[in-house]
Amino acid sequence: MSRKFTDIFFKYLFSVVALFSVLALGAILLFVFAQGTMPFFTSTAPGIRLVAQRIDEITVNGVLYLKHSTFIDIPKDTELISISFPSENAEKTGGETLEIKVDTAEKDPQKKLAFLHNNEVKITYPESYVYTVSWPSAIAALEKRIHIIIPEPAYGFWKFIVGLEWHPSRDKIFGIFPMITGTIVASLGAIILGVPVALLCALFMAEFLGQKTASVVRAGVELLAGIPSVVYGFFGLMVIVPLVKNTFKLSSGNTLLSAIIVLALMILPTVITIAETSLRAVPLSVREASLSLGASRMQTSWKVVLPHANSGVIAGVILGISRAVGETMAVILVAGNSPQLTINPLASVRTLTSTIAMEMGYASGRHSEMLFSIGVTLFSIILILNSLILWYRRRMEAEL
User: Fold this and answer.
1) What are phi and psi of 275, to 5 degrees?
2) To which H or E segment does residue 257 belong?
3) pLDDT given at position 261
4) d(CA 179, CA 197)
5) Strand, coil or helix: what is 268?
């Protein structure tokens, strides 16, 4: 009775844990996708917003605001914004007044507003969709300012994907094609460089090393797999970057080639471990059948054992690609992080993950939403690459 109760208890416990795990994963994916797709369908705000700086009492369109520290929202279709607030010589001038005419049909944000004021003011355009009106003061730090923030319209999806420029702060331009290219080229370069070496190492460990020696080497490889990525990045910064710089006589060794070499080193332990485990799982009878037909040990390993372990080897390659595409810290340290479109291995590049890691700490508004969009793009790239590899594996299995 006790054993039956225990079995039932653990059965339902595992079911509940699995259910909550799936729900949590689904909630995370839903949140990321919602945040990542939002900038392509909605504007940043329903209407114009005002922010008063060093102004305790302000009247906007007849509404008085006292010590207002947050946004003052203006209805979407408002064509005239009237602002007034007391000044130091209010008795003589009647206070400061400012009228802003809004051209709702104008698409260019720099031409959308027209200003009328009763005193000398300074109007600047510090960044796209933001105007700053300041009243001169004897001390610049005490200048009264009003910031007018125009809502940014929905951003074009193709403009985001194939755009060649990334200027999120000043111009609000979000083109990630250079980062997509940098991510794919760096990852494919690492796969081309690292996977053949990993397969040869796995074959050597599984087919030619003795059990005791192979166990020692395997322990070392597994230890390499557990090293944090920042350590690989630091190694690349101190060894590989200077080596690339001196070898090719460059001004800086932080290049695409450095990133490819570091990523290739990082994926080696993962691919070797999984491939070696799959090779050892091939039945001994398969090897004996090949050897009995006169094949050499190398021919047996390469043309018989490796094809039989095809499924596990491809799984290792998929994990290697996922790690290469999703790597962040090591790439930040060695790639140079210049968002330029290039496939020159001696040029500086930036990847999608590097952009998220470097800018998420200070991003806000549309900039923050676009970083979530980069995360969705990264997820889609990994999904497409893995799907292509799985399709190729099924095709190979069908031919066999």
Assistant:
1) -65, -40
2) helix 256-280
3) 94
4) 27
5) helix
